[in-house]
Write a structure and sequence with these properties.
This protein is about 25% helix and about 30% strand. By secondary structure, it is α/β, with parallel strands linked by helices. The protein has one domain: 3-Layer(aba) Sandwich (Dihydrofolate Reductase, subunit A). The chain has an eight-stranded mixed β-sheet with strand order 5-4-3-6-1-7-10-9, sandwiched between helices. A two-stranded antiparallel sheet has the order 2-8.
Length: about 190
């Protein structure tokens, strides 16, 4: 059975984006990319909310082709282009999307079918609204939380109206001060 793993950056006070969705405070660098890419490469299915999918689709398919492409751009672009994608959306039409399925209803049934299908792992990047929906239904098995050294004071919370008991599996502090926490749901 596949695990569903959530990857999310958060501020120290638990916000995944500012009030208007801004994410300019998220710290990323080669150390963080190298640490996370080992886990990302284990996944063979990427799950997104519509907003995050459209943002990813606007960059990753051609990121490796850019003249200033970094090692991470090249590696993640290759992964992104080959991985199967699922988008949770009530408004996106998935009929013409390459290697992408849109789930707009029956969330629990659809996600459980994906988890029961043959494959290694399902990973969801960011996508706070999708994450909230999945958490509400107890569908997320593991959380990779990247706590950034900033307090936003307000914004979109990572967790919402749901008690989830977790067990810490690993932690790592990067040179930049981002603390990477890996939890499993108990």
């Amino acid at each position: 059975m596949r695990k569903l793993v959530l990857f999310m950056h958060t501020s120290l006070d638990g916000f995944v984006a500012g009030r208007k969705g801004e994410m300019d405070w998220i710290h990323v660098d080669e150390e963080l990319f190298d640490y996370a890419s080992n886990r990302i490469n284990e996944a063979d299915l990427a799950l997104y909310g519509r907003v995050t999918y459209e943002m990813m689709e606007g960059y990753w398919p051609t990121a490796a082709d850019q003249p200033n492409a970094t090692k991470h751009d090249i590696e993640h672009s290759a992964w992104y282009n080959k991985v199967e994608k699922v988008v949770l959306s009530k408004t996106l039409n998935g009929s013409k999307l390459k290697n992408t399925k849109v789930v707009s209803e029956n969330l629990v049934k659809e996600i459980n079918q994906l988890k029961d299908s043959i494959g290694s792992e399902i990973i969801i990047f960011g996508s706070p609204s999708a994450g909230h929906s999945l958490m509400a239904e107890n569908l997320i098995d593991e959380f990779w939380v990247f706590v950034n050294p900033i307090v936003l004071g307000q914004g979109i919370p990572m967790f919402k109206n749901k008690r989830i008991k977790l067990k810490l599996l690993t932690s790592k502090t990067t040179d930049s001060g981002v603390v990477c926490l890996h939890y499993s749901r108990v």
